[in-house]
Amino acid sequence: MERRGAFLTMLSLVMVSACSKGSAPAPQASSYEPVAAGVASLKQAGANAAPAASSGTIDDLERAERRIIRSADLGIAATDVTDAERRAAAITQELGGYVASSERSVPAMDDEAVEPEVNMVLRVPSERFTTALARLEELGSRVLTQRVRSDDVTEEFIDLKARLVAQRALETQFLEILKQARSVKDALEVQTQLADVRTTIEKLEGRQRYLENQTSISTIKLGIVHGAPLVRASRFAFGSSFERAGADLLNVSAAILHGSIRVLGVMTPVFVLVLLPASLVVRAVFRRRRRRLASA
């Protein structure tokens, strides 16, 4: 019992050293019970690793580089939607970014010459985010919507780094205990806990990579719709006015003609099947009455 108590005391000292420095001499396991006790101590230390590691994040936060996720929603009206789409892609590539996605949709209208609507997702380096936004605004005749968001994730980024250090130190200690396992039962117990630690490490590393990607490259969602400038005056615009007047005349005439044809198509069966027989019956009745009056 004294030997086991000494082993547990040494294991506790090892865990304190692992959480603070990330390296310590491996404990010696002589049977399953000391190994199980060491695994339990390591699990408890891993659960307390995040609070212990994040205790110094306030000072780290003051010294660290700010990590900010920037994004924007921009909607513009352009006289030529296709040209604006092409120029937006060129500006993004010029600034070192890329077009993540581009989608075209045509509004449901009878006019075949209607311009399509374009929705683009652009990724640009964060240091050129403001420049890209300003240049994209110039593509349209006017800006319809503009929303800019900034999310500071510096504290979460520092906390992830501290938790990764603690979990990797915990992984090292489990590997050292695994080397000292004397039975299959000991090895399986340690490997189970080691797999949990490695799963946690993979999740933390995935979240860290995501934050690094989002903070290094900003996202701009650009929507382009067709729209003429608000003010457009020219003394040579009479030709376009006459063209529009002629088009309106043809459209109205065509509508009247189509309506007349439809009315004629509806009234023809009514006249043949209802009005014509009724008029014949009425005429026959009147003739008979006249004959009776004449004979009287």
Structural topology:
Elements: H1 2-21, H2 32-47, H3 49-53, H4 57-63, E1 68-78, H5 81-94, E2 98-105, E3 117-125, H6 129-137, E4 142-152, H7 154-179, H8 184-216, E5 217-226, H9 238-295
Provide a short characterization of the protein structure.
The radius of gyration is 41 Å and the shape is elongated.
List keywords for this structure.
5 strands; 9 helices; disordered N terminus; 64% helix; 5-stranded mixed β-sheet; alpha+beta; single chain
Give an overview in words:
The chain is an alpha+beta fold. It has nine helices and five strands; from the N terminus they run H-H-H-H-E-H-E-E-H-E-H-H-E-H. The chain has helices at 2-21, 32-47, 49-53, 57-63, 81-94, 129-137, 154-179, 184-216, 238-295; strands at residues 68-78, 98-105, 117-125, 142-152, 217-226. The protein has a five-stranded mixed sheet with strand order 2-3-5-1-4. The model is unreliable at 1-34, 50-57 and 232-236 (pLDDT under 50).
Q: Percent range for helical residues?
A: 55-70%
On the 0 to 100 scale, the average pLDDT is 76
Helix run count: 9
Approximate shape: elongated
The biggest beta sheet, please? 5 strands, mixed
DSSP E strands, number:
5
Radius of gyration: 41 Å
Which regions are unreliable across 5 or more consecutive residues at pLDDT < 50?
Answer: 1-34, 50-57, 232-236
The succession of helices and strands, N to C, reads HHHHEHEEHEHHEH
- Protein structure class: alpha+beta
Strand order of the largest sheet: 2-3-5-1-4
Beta-strand fraction estimate: 15-25%
How many angstroms does the end-to-end distance come to?
146 Å
